[in-house]
Design brief:
The structure is a homodimer. By secondary structure, chain A is an alpha/beta fold. Chain A is built from 15 helices and 16 strands. Strand 16 of chain A pairs parallel with strand 13 of chain B, so a sheet runs across the interface.
Chain lengths: ~425, ~425
């Protein structure tokens, strides 16, 4: 089999699927999603049986327990997958919304209408639930998908895709709405990334290595979800009890996530009254503190932070702490070391809050709230396909709207160019 | 000199410039643009003297008359360049606009704020006015530029950039707001395209060859302005006099532009009453018609259109004409051959108008109006940096808003993630 031809055929099928989805009504798309949810539950045994093949192979290959856990499907997980589809069906359809409309002096009306992007390539790693999750969001926004999951989950993904395609067809959509590259060869990904003009967008979901490899080799626009080196700055005018709660939540509530705090910046003026108690609370939860010289004077057991530590996404119970002169030094530090994901200030001072809001350039800038809140569900977007660290097209949590583009529409009555 | 180091230093300078621009008020940016306009006019002689060096070299190299014309500056062109800057200063500042803001159940307020993109690389060909035009739009939207003009205009561009930088500095902005890669080596462009993380967006302005080369080699997102294979479909329910005016305007008013019509689709039912008179009017203006078999029965002198003709952007007084069975065949043709730039229907039928509007997937879809109207000025955007044929980030005419991105802002009162 010629891999290039194979991938091209899949993408062309997805293009047909996209055209059928672009024409589908919200009702038709929602019905398909609900039927897909039913079918996944009804055919749960089939899914778990196929998943067992992946698990057996992974065990033989000696994959880690954590990997095996991420890979495995059971009744509960299938139920959750199905519930995800039902939730997406309940969200408002972004397609067809006219964002604004205005009149021109020559009498024509011009508007901007939200439309699907077209064909979206999803490249992901081991978790098979991504197959249903990502597909449901793309479909709801009128896009077809070309799925490329991790080779270790190939039987599970193939089974999920079969169910989704069966339903799509039964509901009068083109089967190409859901396409899957079901060969394990790495070359297939490389071929997919060349299909500019057929595939409109690539979303890689996985670790930094995967995202970099995809983005360096793609001729198609890529929406990236890079790391989060997130900061909380405790200003001299902060409510210190609130600051303590926010910093604790930002670091400890779930340290392995991209919106967890990695560096806490503390205003010199309140360092003495704030840091020792804060550090004691962190210590109780097992947080290791890497501090600047000033920090180490106030926090016993803090180890010395090196410059490169400030670039680090620990994803763990480790925290950099730095004492800064004022808000300017805090914002300079953020401008230099932040990955521009989520950065927060705690302050009671209106002016400093507004400056921080305006001048810090991150996907989410928060006043008096935990960085952990930068999330599609928390922000009320309904669902998210990831948190974009890109500045182009979408930034921050990506919901359904971010899976659309716009076109200009003109309602004329014979207007010509003079 | 190490080219890599040289380009990297320029980009880093631009990054500093971007930070200073992001903090600048609208007043400060507008004042800088007005002073730049004054300075260009005041130092017009200096510009024309430097331009003469480029012209002399281009003549020696034997460049075409058209090329020499595009390259040359005179008092009038400098005045126009300056007026462009004054017009951009008068446009509303997109930065800081809060697109929407909403309350979450936990009491925090979440909003989406428009912010600059950062550093924009502009890669362009011979016309030196692009240097001032593109810079003014980027600056107004709070972005710094890394300019890379055609080597044949290097003296002119260097002189323009010097003036713009002098003013930027005098007005309290960082000089890096306007940076220019003033070495002719092609390698410099390749190095620029690798600077992911420093340069945020690349906009190539020029022919298809330039755009393809940039997009294939760039690790940075590229906004593309590809060709326009634009259609007008004359429906059986069209006002035929209006249809004639629209088709004539779309083809003849300025055939060398990307939004000019290249293929006219005519409903079979009105072909006999519409085509002969329309063709006669085209013939008077020297339009060569390439027609399908049906067309050739009705239009004498029409030559046979081949399948590949329908993909062609003639940019000239040549037109494909095809008779179609109905709106479905017309939309199928458009889905297959259109470059998704500008496509129009002429009809009095409400339902068909609405179907065309919804189902045709192009940057502008028009009812009863000429494709030539797909333009930033015509649409009322004030100015445009080009017409994007991309679906990601911006589609259609790109004005100031399209040169920004958004960030989420959170106004909290101690909210934590549960």
């Amino acid at each position: 089999m010629d891999i290039r031809e194979f991938v091209l055929a899949k993408a062309k099928e997805a293009k047909e699927g996209a055209r059928s989805l672009a024409r589908a009504s919200s009702k038709q798309k929602n019905l398909a999603l609900l039927r897909m949810a039913e079918a996944l539950q009804k055919r749960s045994k089939e899914l778990i049986r196929e998943n067992a093949k992946d698990i057996a192979y992974a065990e033989k290959k000696g994959l880690s327990k954590a990997m095996l856990d991420r890979l495995s499907l059971n009744d509960k997980r299938v139920r959750e997958m199905a519930r995800g589809l039902v939730e997406v069906a309940a969200l408002p359809d972004p397609v067809g919304e006219v964002l604004k409309m205005w009149q021109r002096p020559n009498g024509m009306t011009v508007g901007k209408m939200r439309v699907p992007i077209g064909v979206i390539g999803i490249i992901y790693e081991s978790r098979p639930n991504v197959t249903a999750d990502a597909t449901s969001l793309c479909l709801k926004a009128g896009n077809s998908v070309v799925l490329r999951g991790g080779s270790e989950a190939i039987h599970s993904n193939r089974a999920i895709v079969k169910i989704l395609r069966d339903v799509a067809k039964a509901e009068g959509l083109h089967e190409g709405a859901v396409t899957f590259i079901d060969i394990p060869d790495r070359e297939a990904v490389m071929e997919l990334l060349k299909l500019e003009g057929i595939v409109d967008l690539i979303i890689p979901r996985g670790g930094e290595g995967l995202i970099r490899a995809v983005s360096e080799n793609s001729r198609i626009p890529v929406l990236k979800h890079y790391k989060g080196v997130c900061h909380v700055f405790v200003d001299r005018d902060a409510d210190l009890a609130m600051a303590e709660d926010i910093c604790f939540n930002a670091k400890v509530q779930r340290p392995g996530t991209c919106n967890a705090m990695e560096t806490m910046l503390v205003d010199k003026k309140i360092a003495k009254s704030f840091l020792p108690a804060m550090a004691a609370r962190f210590r109780k939860s097992g947080v290791v503190i890497k501090g600047c010289a000033e920090t180490r004077k106030l926090v016993k057991n803090a180890v010395a932070a090196k410059d490169e530590d400030y670039y680090n996404e620990y994803l763990d119970l480790v925290l950099n702490v730095k004492v800064v002169k004022d808000i300017d030094e805090a914002m300079d530090h953020i401008a230099r070391y932040s990955s521009a994901h989520s950065d927060a200030i705690v302050t009671k001072d209106y002016g400093k809050g507004m400056r921080f809001l305006r001048e810090v350039d991150s996907s989410a800038v928060l006043i008096n709230a935990s960085t952990r809140l930068n999330d599609g569900y928390q922000f009320g977007l309904g669902a998210e396909i990831g948190i974009s660290t890109d500045k182009i097209h979408a930034r921050g949590p990506m919901g359904l709207e971010e899976l659309t583009c716009t076109k200009f529409i003109v309602l004329g009555s014979g207007q010509l160019r003079e």
